[in-house]
């Protein structure tokens, strides 16, 4: 049932190239320049006329929401706010019939997310679900939606749900960009073709498994980790830290790299591993200077870089290379080595990777 892998988590990490393909199959038609998603087509006016999109979710799904915020605003120029469902539901939120609420949930059963949906509906918003589990409570409670088609996710630590959620949300953003004319025709086509190459690049990113494992042996006894990223990769830093916390019980924090100097830099010494997401596309030069700041304080740098990178390699203690892609699609690749790193550290520490202590796969109570 684990397909030859020791744990469901590893199986699910390795399923990502295929499930991302399953997610866009029949929807993404790069040659024709089309994205076809029934839930969007049927409600396209609601999205185009939305004065704002609100995204609610919890945990990893909330991180996917944060990536989507950057993508929607960049591609479709619609203002987006992302909120923890648990906060949204209890703060008398300002939301009405000009707003679209997108609820993201792998299980479709998360109590806080479900409650946020009910509240948004009462206030007249159009509610769209991005769920993995077909027929789940959230998929039934929403006005429309799009499934992620990741297949069953058994490991408590979410992996393939995250990348397929980002895939669905990227397709929605591209469809809206087309309708609104907010991307140039050439960029639109370029992104469609790029998305089509992602499964292959994820397969290549999975080749980082050996380096992730080697790095894990060096840092498995660390008591703290910092994860830094900027732009589209800021949420990936949060997700990398969450993955490490929940399965290895090592304290980890994710930060937007530039926030470091506003506090967390005080934590850096020769004992502190800092995972920096530094792909070539994106705020590369800025991230390089953040890396220099860590180095001058003797922090141990583990950098995720684009294949062929030399500048960061010269500064970092360890590098993990991933294939090149556009800035907006890089989270789909940068996430992979971070999943693998947490996995190996957790296994080396003897943790129960698939069923970490105190955690449930679906959080059906608030
Ligand atoms: O099923 P959901 O996507 O609504 O679940 C949300 C969170 O409970 C979930 O992502 C949790 O944070 C995972 N254990 C993260 O790996």
From TrEMBL:
Active site: 361 (for fru-6p isomerization activity)
Swiss-Prot/TrEMBL keywords: Aminotransferase, Cytoplasm, Glutamine amidotransferase, Repeat, Transferase
Known catalytic reactions: D-fructose 6-phosphate + L-glutamine = D-glucosamine 6-phosphate + L-glutamate
Primary location class: cytoplasm
GO CC annotations, alphabetized: cytosol
Localization, UniProt: Cytoplasm
SIS domain location: 43-182, 215-356
Keyword set includes Transferase: yes
Gene Ontology MF, one: carbohydrate derivative binding
Coiled coil: none
GO biological process terms, semicolon-separated: carbohydrate metabolic process; fructose 6-phosphate metabolic process; protein N-linked glycosylation; UDP-N-acetylglucosamine metabolic process
EC category name: transferase
EC number: 2.6.1.16
Known function: Catalyzes the first step in hexosamine metabolism, converting fructose-6P into glucosamine-6P using glutamine as a nitrogen source.
Complex and partners: Homodimer.
Protein name, entry field: Glutamine--fructose-6-phosphate aminotransferase [isomerizing]
Gene encoding the protein: glmS
Residues of the full protein shown: 250 to 615 of 615
């Amino acid at each position: 049932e684990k397909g030859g892998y020791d744990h469901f988590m590893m199986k699910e990490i390795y399923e990502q190239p295929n499930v991302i393909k399953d997610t866009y199959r029949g929807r993404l038609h790069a040659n024709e320049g089309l994205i076809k998603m029934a839930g969007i087509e049927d409600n396209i006016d609601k999205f185009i006329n939305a004065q704002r999109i609100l995204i609610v979710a919890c945990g990893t799904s909330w991180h996917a929401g944060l990536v989507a915020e950057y993508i929607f605003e960049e591609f479709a120029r619609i203002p987006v706010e992302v909120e923890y469902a648990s906060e949204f539901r209890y703060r008398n939120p300002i939301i009405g019939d000009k707003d679209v609420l997108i609820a993201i949930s792998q299980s479709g059963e998360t109590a806080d997310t479900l409650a946020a949906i009910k509240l948004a509906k009462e206030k007249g918003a159009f509610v769209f679900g991005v769920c993995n589990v077909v027929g789940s409570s959230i998929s039934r409670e929403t006005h429309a939606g799009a499934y992620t088609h990741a297949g069953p996710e058994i490991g408590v630590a979410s992996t393939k749900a995250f990348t397929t959620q980002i895939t669905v949300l990227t397709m929605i953003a591209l469809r809206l960009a087309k309708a609104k004319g907010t991307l140039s025709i050439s960029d639109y086509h370029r992104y469609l073709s790029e998305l089509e190459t992602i499964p292959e690049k994820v397969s290549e990113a999975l080749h980082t498994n050996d380096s992730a494992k080697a790095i894990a042996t060096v840092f498995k006894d660390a008591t703290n980790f910092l994860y830094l990223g900027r732009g589209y990769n800021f949420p990936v830093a949060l997700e990398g830290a969450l993955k490490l916390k929940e399965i290895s019980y090592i304290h980890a924090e994710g930060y937007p790299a530039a926030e470091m100097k506003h506090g967390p830099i005080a934590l850096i010494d020769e004992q502190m591993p800092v995972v920096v997401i530094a792909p070539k596309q994106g705020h590369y030069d800025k991230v390089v200077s953040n890396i220099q700041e860590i180095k001058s304080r003797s922090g141990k740098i583990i950098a995720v870089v684009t294949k062929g990178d030399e500048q960061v390699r010269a500064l970092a203690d360890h590098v993990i290379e991933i294939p090149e892609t556009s800035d907006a699609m890089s989270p789909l690749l940068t996430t992979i080595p971070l999943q693998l790193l947490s996995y190996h550290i957790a296994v080396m520490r003897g943790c129960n990777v698939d069923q970490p202590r105190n955690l449930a796969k679906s959080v059906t109570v608030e």
